[in-house]
Amino acid sequence: MSDTSNELFELHWLFDMLHNIDVGLVVLDTNYEIQLWNSFMENHSGMSSITAKNTSLFSVFPDLNAEWLQKKLDHVVALRTPIFISWEQRPFLFSFKSYRPITGIAEKMFQNVTIRPLSHIDGSIKYVCLVIYDVTDVATNKAALSAANRKLHIMSTTDDLTGLKNRNSLDKALEMVFESYKRAPTSAHSLVMADLDLFKKINDRYGHQTGDLVLKEVSSILSSSSRKGDFVGRFGGEEFAILLPNCDEESALIYCEKIREKIQNLVVKSPKGDIKITISLGISQLNEKDLSVDTWLSKADDALYQAKEKGRNQTLVYK
Ligand SMILES: Nc1nc2c(ncn2[C@@H]2O[C@H](COP(=O)(O)OP(=O)(O)OP(=O)(O)O)[C@@H](O)[C@H]2O)c(=O)[nH]1
C-alpha cells in the first residue's frame, strides 16, 4: 500500500474515532455556522450532522447566551488561545438531558467546555472547535458531598431533641463574644440562663415522652422570640442558655419577660390533660471584671438560682 493510501486510512480512522468519541465536538466558522457535529452532539441534541451543517449555532440553540458566547468565540479567534469554561462557572453550555444511570438526581448534563482555535494551512484562524465534556458524575458527586458536609455540620452543632444549638456550639459562641469584648469592650453583651420550673413533676406525672414534647414547644418559643444574631442553645436537660450580643441587661430583661410570659401562657396538650409550665431566668451582662467565660456563665447561673429561690417564674439580673 502506498504512503498516500496509508495516510488516507489513518485519516479515516481518526475521523471515525473523533466522530464516535464520547465527547462533544463542534467546529464553527467565524460566522458561528456549524461545520462539524459529531455523534455525541447528534445523540444529545437529536439533530443529525447533515441538518446541523452550515446552520448558525445560535439559530439551532436559541437558548444559548449568544452575546456571551460570541464574545468568547471572537476572543479565541483574535488571541489564538484556547479558553476553558468550567461547570462550576456555568453548569452547562448546551441544555442536554442527563442520562447517566448512577446520577439520576441531575436533570441536565453538567459540562466542561474547551474552545480552541483551529489554524488554517496559511496560519490564519477561520474555525474554532468546541469540546464538550460530560462531567455530570463529578458535579453530582460534589453536590452530594457538600450536602453531606452541611448535614454533618448541622448534626454536630444542633441539639437532636429541640433543634436548638447544642452545648458545644454554645461554648464556641460564648468564647467568640468574650474574646471580641476583651479586644474592644465597647458594646454590651448579655447572657441568659433559663430553667423550666418543677419540670421533674411533669415527667413524673405525664411521662418522659410528654416531657420531651414540653421541651420542644418551649424551645420553639425561645427560637421564634429571638432576633437574628441571638444564640439560643440547650445547655442540658431542661436548662437553656441564650446569648444576646449587643444587648445590655435592661434590654435583656425586656426580652426575658416577653419569653417568660409566652411560656406562662403556653398550653401543651397531652392524653392525660393540658399541661402548663413556667420558666425562671437569670441575666448577666458581660463586664471588664469577668476574667473568663466561666465567670460570666456562673454570674448568669447565680441570677437564675436567685430567681428560683424567690419563688420561680421570674427573671433576675445579676447584681
Ligand atoms: N423529658 C425529658 N426530661 C428531661 C430531659 N433532660 C432532663 N430532664 C428532666 O428534667 C428534670 C429536672 O429536674 P430538677 O433538676 O429537679 O428540676 P425541676 O424539677 O425543674 O425543678 P426546679 O429547677 O427547681 O424548678 C429531671 O426529672 C430530668 O430527668 C429530657 O431531655 N427530656
TrEMBL record:
<dbReference type="InterPro" id="IPR000160">
    <property type="entry name" value="GGDEF_dom"/>
</dbReference>
<dbReference type="Pfam" id="PF00990">
    <property type="entry name" value="GGDEF"/>
</dbReference>
<keyword id="KW-0548">Nucleotidyltransferase</keyword>
<dbReference type="InterPro" id="IPR035965">
    <property type="entry name" value="PAS-like_dom_sf"/>
</dbReference>
<dbReference type="InterPro" id="IPR013656">
    <property type="entry name" value="PAS_4"/>
</dbReference>
<protein>
    <recommendedName>
        <fullName>diguanylate cyclase</fullName>
        <ecNumber>2.7.7.65</ecNumber>
    </recommendedName>
</protein>
<dbReference type="GO" id="GO:0052621">
    <property type="term" value="F:diguanylate cyclase activity"/>
</dbReference>
<dbReference type="InterPro" id="IPR029787">
    <property type="entry name" value="Nucleotide_cyclase"/>
</dbReference>
<dbReference type="InterPro" id="IPR050469">
    <property type="entry name" value="Diguanylate_Cyclase"/>
</dbReference>
<feature type="domain" description="GGDEF">
    <location>
        <begin position="187"/>
        <end position="319"/>
    </location>
</feature>
<dbReference type="InterPro" id="IPR043128">
    <property type="entry name" value="Rev_trsase/Diguanyl_cyclase"/>
</dbReference>
<keyword id="KW-0808">Transferase</keyword>
<dbReference type="Pfam" id="PF08448">
    <property type="entry name" value="PAS_4"/>
</dbReference>
